[in-house]
Amino acid sequence: HVQLVESGGGLVQPGGSLRLSCAASGNTGTINVMAWFRQAPGKEREGVAAVYTAYDSTYYADSVKGRFTISRDNAKNTLYLEMNRLKPEDTAVYYCVRFDSDYVYWGQGTQVTVS
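User: That's the sequence. What structure does it adopt?
Assistant: Structure tokens below.
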């Protein structure tokens, strides 16, 4: 069983920065994709950024491209999301997601408020 624990959320002013972390523990099976999703009040959950482990390539939603950076530290089993130049529309609960070959794991989420 895999556990994903996010941290680093909080309240920040527009233009500010935050770094989210996602620590993974448990069975470290074959990981295909590690990603960050977010869900704002009254909106659908959306993918923000992802890293494809086999190729170490990344994906970013257009809304965050150039402002957010996804990275990982394999030695620490930790995924990061560096968020710069934050905007009020970035306010959401951010989730860490791990796509294994046969299962998808979600963290509990961390609140990011830009105001």
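The CA atoms of residues 48 and 62 lie 9 Å apart.
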